[in-house]
Amino acid sequence: MNKTLIIGAGGVGRVVAHKCAINAATFGEITLASRTESKVSRISSEIAKKHGVSVAVAAVNADDASQVAQLIRKTKANIVINVALPYQDLAIMDACVEAGADYLDTANYEHPNLAKFEYKEQWAKGALFKNAGRMALLGSGFDPGVTNVFCAYAMKHLFDEIHTIDILDCNAGDHGYAFATNFNPEINLREVSARGRYYEKGKWIETDPLSQKIVWNYPEVGEKDSYLLYHEELESLARNIKGIERIRFFMTFSQNYLTHMRCLENVGMLGIKPVDHNGQKIVPIEFLKTLLPDPATLGERTKGKTNIGCLFDGVQNGKKRRVYIYNVCDHEECYREVLSQAVSYTTGVPAMIGAKLMLEGKWKQYGVWNMEQLDPDPFMYELNQQGLPWRIVEMKPEK
Ligand code: NDP
After folding, report:
1. Phi then psi dihedrals of residue 185, to 5 deg
2. Cis (ω within 30 of 0) for the bond into 295?
3. 80-97: b or e for each residue (b if 16 or more CB lie within 10 Å)?
4. Predicted pLDDT of residue 114
5. Ligand 1 atom at minimal distance to the Cα of residue 39
C-alpha cells in the first residue's frame, strides 16, 4: 500500500488532503504535517466527517531537513507532497533523497531574504535524485503546472511549431473584503510587486512592475485588464518548448487591488528586510500577513470564477494556427466539494494529480522534472475526471 506525506496545511494543503482522501485507493495511508498542529488536526477532522477517510497528523518544521527525513522514515512515506512555502523546497528535497521518497511541489524555491525565484538550485539536485533512484516533480499546481501541461499537449497534438505562448490568468472571484490575497499574502505580494519579465527571441526583456497591460475576453468571465508579470513557468518553458520565439504571462487585477497594493508598497509595508520597531525587529511583509485575512478562510465567502489558460500561435501542416486552451473553475462549487476557494482548488487538484500519476507509475522517472517534459495525455485525462475540465478553442490566426 502507498504511504503519502503532505506537508503544509494552508489553503492549498487543505485541498490536497481532501483530494488525496477522495482518491485514497491510490494514496493509501495519508499523513498531513505542518508547523501548526491545530491546523492539521482541524483538516483531518473535517475530512473524516466529509469523506469518511482517516488522515494521520504530525507537526514538523520543514526548514529542518533532518526533521522532515525523520518524519518520512516514521510514516514510511514513498511520496512527499510539498505544499508548505517555497522557502522550504530545498530542505524537503534533501530530506526526500536522504530518507528515500519521491518529491512534488507547486512553487519554485525562494530565499526568504531575496525577492527572487528561479529553478537553478532545484535543477542542480537532478543528479542527487537520479542516483538515489527517486523523482522530483517541480511546479505541479495550475500555473506553474497545468499551464505547462497545456503547452506539452499543444506541442504533442496541435502544432508542428509553436511560435508564441501567452499564459492568461484571471481570478474574477469576490470575497467581500476591501483587500485580501487568494494565496499566501507574502508570496503573492512579492510576486506581483516585482519587475515584469518575458522571453523573446532568445532574450529576457524586463519591464517596470505592472507597466504592460492587455485586455482579454475570458470565457464565462468577460473582458478584464491583464498585466504582464514574470512567472516561474516562463523559465522552464522557454527552455523546453523547442523553437519558441516569445512567451509571456498575464494576470488580472482589479483597480481596487492595485490601489491597495501601491499604497502598501509606498508606505513600506511590502519590505522584506527587518526594521526596528520599539526595540523589536519586524519584517513589514510578515507583519502585513498577520493583519490580512488568512487565504484559507476565504472559501466560504468567495463567489465568482477563475479562468486560466494558454493562447498558442504557431504552424501545423504548413498553415498558421491559433488555439486557446483553458479551464474555468467556480469558487462556490469548490467550497462545496473541499471547503476551499478556487485559487487553492486549482493549485491543490493538480498537485494531487501529479502525485497520483507518479504513484501509478504513469509519470515515473528518475531525477528532477518539470511538467512539460512528461507525457501530457494522462494528466489531461485526470483533469477532466478530478474537477478541472478544460476546453480547446480554435481561433483566427493573426496575419
Ligand atoms: P498558506 O500560507 O496558506 O499555507 C502554507 C502552509 O505551510 C501553512 O500551513 C504553514 O504553516 C506551512 N508552513 C510554513 N512554513 C513551514 C515550515 N517551516 N514548516 C512546516 N510548515 C510550514 O499558503 P498556500 O496554501 O496559499 O500556498 C501553499 C503553496 O502553494 C505555496 O508555496 C504557494 O506559493 C503555492 N501556490 C502555487 C500555485 C500554483 O498554481 N502553482 C498557486 C497558489 C499557491 P503555519 O500554518 O504554521 O503558518
Report:
1. -60, -40
2. no
3. bbbbbbbbbbbbbbbbbb
4. 79
5. 46
Residue in 311, 307, 305 with CA at minimum distance from that of residue 167: 311
Reference 39, options 285, 297, 288, 293; nearest CA is 297
383 pocket-lining for ligand 1 (C-beta < 6 Å)? no
Query: In the sheet that 3-7 helps form, which strands lie side by side, from edge to edge?
Result: 55-59, 29-34, 3-7, 79-82, 102-105, 135-138, 367-370
Distance 187 CA to ligand 1 centre (A): 9
Among 398, 397, 383, 253, residue whose Cα is nearest residue 326: 383
Chain segment 105-128, per-residue pLDDT in tens? 999 999 888 777 899 999 999 999
Task: Tell me the pLDDT tens digit for each residue of 237-288.
Answer: 999 999 999 999 999 999 999 999 999 999 999 999 999 999 999 999 999 9
Per DSSP (E only), the strands in the chain are 3-7, 29-34, 55-59, 79-82, 102-105, 135-138, 161-171, 196-200, 203-207, 213-218, 222-229, 246-252, 275-277, 280-282, 305-316, 319-330, 367-370, 390-395
83 CA to centre of ligand 1 in angstroms = 5
Q: Are 189 and 261 spatial neighbours (Cβ–Cβ below 8 Å)? A: yes
CB 119 within 8 A of CB 232: yes
Among 326, 324, 321, smallest CA distance to 305 is for 326
**Any ligand 1 atom below 6 A from CB of 83:** yes
Cα 105 to averaged position of ligand 1 atoms, centre (Å): 10
